[in-house]
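Homework help board

Subject: predicted structure for assignment chain

Our instructor gave us this sequence and asked us to write out the predicted structure in token form, then describe one feature. I got the tokens but I'm not sure how to describe them. Can anyone check?
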Amino acid sequence: MTHQEQALATLVDGEFASECEFLAALVQIATDNPPGDCNAHAQRARELLEGLGLVVEMHAPPDANKFGQRV
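My token output:
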């Protein structure tokens, strides 16, 4: 394992509990398919990522009906 790989592994291992909490917060949000409404999940992901100091840009998905696709 290279020095960089070891440093990354140490970082991931050291934050394992908070990584699990982050993922657990995301999987608690329903994203049932169909209809595939993932807006609440996207909003929660945004909150969590901004809480980590990241800048998040959100874009609305294209209207499936506009393109003749079934939702």
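Reply (TA_rk): Your tokens look well-formed. For the description, you could write something like this. The first helix runs from residue 3 to 14. That's the kind of observation they're looking for.
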